[in-house]
Design brief:
Chain A is mainly α. Chain A is 86% helix and 0% strand. Chain B is globular. The chains are: A mainly alpha (162), B mainly alpha (173).
């Protein structure tokens, strides 16, 4: 058995029991091998330190603060119905701007096509139009898609605020 | 006495007494863990509050097949890790030196102090497994569940952490 395996055995035995028997069994090796003996000493020190460092009770103020914040967060999770309505209303208002954005995009592509038609071949113009339309669709999609998340985030912050 | 998982089921339905019971059962231990992990009391206090806010928010999604203890320590570890990543190296160096004092002052208190400093100086992922194993007494399965990593990784990180401690820490018998 190599030293790595012995050290792993020692680590296991510390928690799973049988450390005394194992140490007795490997006493000769532990006395002869500096690497394993320092590993065992470190384990002893770690265990001693961990046993001494029992968690202190929380201060009443901190305990109260933890409970208050967690309870507020718990109550905020129960207001799903309000949450949905509060998302739907701003989203409906924001959707009013959608026809304007689409109309503006249509005007831009047609205006530019009309201006550039004498200089650029039709295939390039079609490519540019598709590229523009795709970018505009992605931007609008991202914007409208992120709205519910932004509203939900703001809403949760409001419900969890003191 | 209700099990942790029973209390989580009650918490999922909005029972605040279950929340209080879980806080009484685990908050002190998690706080001590965060204190050792972050090396700073203010950070540990903030992280503890955030941990329990996450517990309350995620109660409905909690899988009762999981162990609550592993789950809550996993949340605390992730939050501590996020904080650690946000910190600059300089801040970290300043903060990692203040660890919890030993409960029993004695002849080896200087060694213990040095040991705590060395633990604080370990890479974050090694420190987490070492603290969960030796201070929280978790077994490999619990640590793997808590940190959401394979058991083999837990084993190798723990071994590397001990090697790392031994490499820079002159332990004598």
């Amino acid at each position: 058995m190599n030293c790595d395996a012995r050290q792993e055995q020692l680590e296991q035995a510390v928690f799973e029991g049988g450390i005394h028997a194992l140490v007795e069994d490997q006493r000769e090796h532990l006395e002869a091998c500096a690497d394993c003996s320092s590993h065992f000493a470190l384990l002893q020190q770690l265990i001693g330190e961990a046993l001494d460092a029992q968690p202190a009770a929380l201060s009443p103020q901190l305990r109260a603060l933890v409970h208050e914040r967690a309870a507020r967060a718990l109550r905020a999770t129960r207001s799903d119905a309000i949450f949905r309505w509060e998302v739907a209303a701003p989203l409906a208002v924001a959707l009013l701007a959608l026809p304007i954005a689409i109309g503006q995009g249509w005007l831009w592509t047609h205006g530019l096509s009309y201006l550039l038609e004498p200089w650029l071949p039709a295939s390039v113009l079609t490519g540019l139009t598709i590229f523009y339309a795709a970018s505009a669709a992605l931007t609008l999609g991202g914007l409208y898609g992120s709205l519910p998340f932004a509203i939900a985030y703001a809403n949760r912050n409001r419900l969890e605020a003191p | 006495m209700h099990s942790d998982e029973d209390l989580m089921a009650a918490l999922a339905s909005g029972d605040e007494t279950a929340l209080a019971a879980l806080i009484d059962r685990y908050a002190a231990g998690v706080h001590a863990y965060l204190l050792r992990h972050s090396g700073n009391r203010e950070d540990a206090d903030d992280l503890l509050q955030e941990t329990w806010v996450r517990v309350a928010r995620s109660a409905k999604r909690f899988d009762t097949a999981r162990r609550f203890r592993s789950w809550v320590y996993g949340i605390a570890t992730n939050l501590a890790r996020d904080l650690f990543r946000r910190r600059t190296t300089k801040e970290r160096a300043l903060r990692t030196l203040s660890m919890t004092p030993s409960a029993t002052p004695g002849a080896d208190s200087a060694d213990r102090g040095e040991l705590r400093e060395r633990i604080a100086a370990l890479p974050e992922n090694m420190r987490a497994v070492l603290l969960l194993r030796y201070y929280e007494g978790m077994n490999e399965a619990e640590m793997a569940e808590s940190l959401e990593i394979p058991r083999g990784t837990v084993k190798s990180r723990l071994h590397a952490a001990l090697r790392n401690l031994r490499g820079c820490y002159g332990v004598s018998r």
